[in-house]
Amino acid sequence: MSDAYALLQRLGLTEDELCRVLGTDPLSVLSGQVDADPRLKILLDLTGEAEAKVGPDALRLWAQRNPQHQLLLDGDFAGFEDALATLAQRGLTITRDPGAARRARPQ
Question: Domain residue spans in the chain?
Answer without folding.
Answer: 3-104
